[in-house]
Amino acid sequence: MFRIDDATAASSLPTPEAAGTEGYFTEGNPATGTPATLERASWFNMVQEELRAIVVAGGLTPSKTTYTQVRDAILQLIQGGAGVTPIIGSVRNLAMTVATASATATITADEIVIGSALGGSKLTLGAFNKSINLATVGVNAGVGGMDTGTAPANSFVGIYGIGNPLTGAAALLGQSANGVILPNVYGGGHMPAGYTESALLTVVPTNASSQFSPCVVMDRAVDFNGSSILSTSTTAASPTIVNNLVVPLNAKNCTGFMQIGNSAAASVAMALLSSSAGTGTQSIALTLNASGSIASPFNKLKITVGQRVFYTGSSSAGTPTFSAQVTSYEI
Predict the structure, then answer these.
(1) Are residues 199 and 228 in the same domain?
(2) What is the pTM of this model?
(3) CA angle (138, 143, 145) in 5-degree steps
(4) Is the pLDDT of residue 81 over 60?
(5) Is residue 203 part of a domain?
């Protein structure tokens, strides 16, 4: 849906005349002196802009030689005619691998969904393959880099997929996730010029050099080198807070393993919980005839309070040990 580009076309949208009474076209009738309806430029501009708005909202680049863009945009907006509105941040087979610490990474996906706002227009990008460099900084340079400032050290960076619906351009944009919950649609105020659609794709850890730490991202899950969240000999009869600072505030659950042991023969038990109310309990127990320990995995323990989980631990004798390590999380 390309705008009129004749040499006589106005360079900007003219102000339409005052609205009159709505009616219908007529060819007129010379016998009765009824004039034919005049076709005003303001009406043509209205129709042109209405159709073009559909094309742009559907994520297509207006073309002068493609004659199915309005149809294609409508199908895009309703996801192939199925009548199901896509959800911003939805992905299919998203992947990112950082084998060794690096400032750069590449995200690929069969498809991602970005948008201007929750509940607003959405843009579906297929065969997505874009790279990001944390050393690239600035509003304009932020295409494929950080939005502003430098990446935080020993913390987390959120990576947004962003798009320009007028040109069809797409890219990645980094934002510091240090101590904050990042929104699903970028709201940092430093979007590169022309980019109006976005979606949070992942939040990943950084090292002391403000680089990506080794990790593997698959859809909403992030696997990384395991980090300890608990190591204590203190028993706890009621749920006690564990600072789970090895995951970002955006994390919804975490996976890893817990270990219990004792210096002497004893019955030892431990549980990890999602809340102080005791929900989401995952536990391990051991009866020892002598000193020893045992480890057990926990899987997708829900995080109901940002960067916090809870534990209980008991022992019938000796000096117990209770520990836990996180190796994965989902946002």
Answers:
(1) no
(2) 0.75
(3) 65
(4) no
(5) yes
